[in-house]
Amino acid sequence: MSGTSGARLKPYLAELKAGQAYAWCACGRSRRQPFCDGSHAGSGIEPVRFTVPGDREALLCGCKRTGDAPFCDGTHNSLADRYAAADAGEIGASAHIRPTPRGGGRTGKSRLDGGCFVSTVNTAALEKHGTTRLGPVIGAADGARCLSLWYMVAEPGRSGVLSFPGSDTVLFLPAGEVQVNISGRDFRAVSECGIFVRAGEAFRINNEGTTPLIMLLTVCPRKDAPQWLESMPRAFDAAIPGRVFGVDHSRREPMADRFYQVLNGAENGSREITQFIGELPRSRAAAHRHLYEEAIMILGGAGFLWTETAHASVGPGDILFLPCKQVHSLECTSDGGMRLVGAFYPSGSPAINY
C-alpha cells in the first residue's frame, strides 16, 4: 500500500464478533492498533471496513503490507533480511533450563509446556496389520482438538485398504518410492512427496522395494482409530485429479532467510490441512504462537524445541506437536541448517504467526 507505514512487523491478535463493524488501520498512524482512530485524515489512505460472519479470532496485519487486508498473510516476514530471532534476554532467561528427556528412554515423548511435545517413535511398538505397522503419535490423549498424526512403516508388498471416514488425509513419504492407490486410482510417489486423500476415499500402499518405508499420515478432523476395509471403494473424486505433490524450488516462498513450499493446501483440494516443506538456517527463532495445531517431522539437522519453561532435543525423524496458541521456538544448531515437513489445521499460510 503506497504511502503506508507499518505499526509493527508482527500481526495483532483480535477477537472479532459476528456482524460487528470494524475499521482496520491501513495507514499505520492509529494509536488504537490495529483499528482506525481517525489519524489517517489528510493522508489519502482510508481504513478497511469489514465484518465477519461468525465470532472468530484473527490475526490482523500490523506491517500494513498484507495482500489480504485486513488479515495478516505473512508478508511481514519478507520485510527483513533475517527471520525474527531470540534476543539475548530470551536466551539468557532460559539458559538454566535442562533438557526434558524422552519418556521411554531413547524413544517416547518429551512433554513440554501446554501439551507441546517432541516424540521419538518406537516403531517396534506400532500395531501390525498385514504388511504395515501403524500407530498414533498425536491424538486426543495428547490434547489435540482437530489434528491427528499417524506413523506408518510399510514393509515390502501391498498394504490393506485404509480409511479415515469423514476426514481428509495427507500422507508424506520422507524417503523412497511407493505406489499409492486412492479409491481405484494409482499414483507414484517419491522422496519428500505429499499425497492427498479426500474425505470419503480410501487408500493402500504398495512398496515395491526390498526395505521398509516410513510414511506420515495427518488426519483432520481428528480420528482416533483407522478403518481397515475388505475391499477398495470406487469413490475417487475426479474433480481433484492430481494427488501427489513433490519438491519444486520454483514454488519456494521466502520468509526472510528461511523458505517454505506448500505441498498440499486449499489450492489443490486440501481445505482442512496445509502441508509444507520448510528450511531454516542455524538460528533460534524468537518465541511465537500460531492460531493452528501443527505437527512437524524433522527431516535433517538438529537442535531444540523451546517452550516457556522447558526444552527438548530434536533430530531427524523426531515428531513435534505444537498446540494452538502455545508459545514455542525452534532452534537449529546444525551449520547446514534444518529441513522439516509440517502439517497444520486449520489450513492457511505457514508464514503467519504472532
Explain this structure.
The strands form 7 sheets. An 8-stranded antiparallel beta sheet has the order 5-6-27-24-29-22-21-20, with no helix packed on it. The mean pLDDT is 96. It has 3 domains: 79 residues, no CATH class; 109 residues, Jelly Rolls; 122 residues, Jelly Rolls (Sandwich), CATH 2.60.120. By secondary structure, it is an all-beta fold.
CATH fold type of the largest domain? Jelly Rolls
The SSE order reads EEEEHEEEEEEEEEEEEEEEEEEEEEEEEE
Strand order of the largest sheet: 5-6-27-24-29-22-21-20
Q: Could you give the count of β-strands?
A: 29
- Helical coverage, percent range: under 10%
Structural class: mainly beta
List keywords for this structure.
3 domains; seven-stranded antiparallel sheet; mainly beta; Jelly Rolls; eight-stranded antiparallel sheet; 354 residues; single chain
Topology:
Blueprint: E1 12-16, E2 22-24, E3 48-50, E4 56-60, H1 88-93, E5 108-111, E6 117-120, E7 127-129, E8 132-138, E9 148-154, E10 157-158, E11 161-163, E12 168-173, E13 177-182, E14 185-190, E15 193-197, E16 203-207, E17 213-220, E18 227-229, E19 244-245, E20 253-255, E21 258-264, E22 274-280, E23 283-284, E24 293-300, E25 303-306, E26 311-314, E27 319-322, E28 329-332, E29 338-345
Antiparallel strand pairs: 1-4, 2-3, 5-6, 6-27, 7-8, 8-9, 9-17, 10-16, 11-18, 12-15, 12-17, 13-14, 13-16, 15-19, 20-21, 21-22, 22-29, 23-28, 24-27, 24-29, 25-26, 25-28
